[in-house]
Amino acid sequence: MVLNRIKPLLAVSFSLIFLFNTITAHAAEKAEAKEEGSFNVTQTILEHIKDDHSWHLWGHTSIPLPVILYTPQGLEVFSSAKLVDEHHEPIVYKGKADYKLVEGKTKIVNEAGEVDIAASKNLWDFSITKNVASLFISVIILLLIVLTAASAYKKTGVTSAPKGLQSFMEPIVLFVRDEIALPNIGAKRYAKYMPFLLTIFFLILTNNFLGLIPIFPGGANVSGNIAFTMTLAVCVFIVVNLSSNKNYWEHIFWMPGMHWSMKLFLAPIELIGVFNKPISLMIRLFANITAGHILVLSLVCLIFIFKTVYAAAVAVPFVIFIFLIELLVAFLQAYIFTMLTAMYIGMASEEAHHDHPATEGAAKELAHH
Prior knowledge:
This protein is mainly α. It has eleven helices and eight strands. Strands 4-3-8 form a three-stranded antiparallel β-sheet, with no helix packed on it. Strands 5-6-7 form a three-stranded antiparallel β-sheet. Strands 1-2 form a two-stranded antiparallel sheet.
């Protein structure tokens, strides 16, 4: 009984220790490679949160990822290890063209090693980067969990007591249904959007946790990548506008119950709001996750800035404290993104007679917050 109670605490403790060791080991290598007093905090932090063509583990050990390029000369696939030397410095790889990593992106260069701007414009990069690989991992994890729980329901039925993964998944699914979908979309329409809302919630939650808990060294920062959050926001934008009805667009372009002069004034503002909603979703998730990573890494870097063990005595407790807060933020950001998505869908599909308790004014006010 006691062992079962302390298992979660032990798991979190070992994860924190592993995270701290991974970060400090890499930071120490950077500090040793530079001259005394020239430790670059900005470079160290950005190297941890940015995307990369290889998956750094420890020291000079990295897993090379496939580089997939399409040029006018045709398709070319090779290992990212050919773009760096033994010290992970960019070098020129001669294939169908001369390729080189410039600020983390593959470019075509000329004989002098300078970027060929005209040729690089015709270069299409479909490479499997660290963030893409981590996204594949999160999708595989979700598929294994969801399909396992679904197969268990087929065997035992939905009326029997949940077991195993069922007992883990069912409360979360019911939470999304009862606390997010039903209040914001309404009892008549919520079921149609449940698969979309659950996909968004679990995808964000899984990637948030994978970016924080170092199950394997060098976790990827998927949720802190603006391309990932932008893709989710575009999907929300499409679903919301496909779900919209005449009543929604009437309130956008010709607000009922107001003088025509006010309608002309409010129409552009409401139209801008149609695009601001997905943009706010994109920036909120990206900024919160990225800020958390930067804060943790900044505290760790204090040790190498002050070059004293006393700095570690102060930095380590703060790192653990912020890391625990980030675990909560990882869940909150998934919840907020899904809740606002459901709210926008409910506002777009709501009939004129208001078939659910939340009024339009309250929904808009909550959406702004």
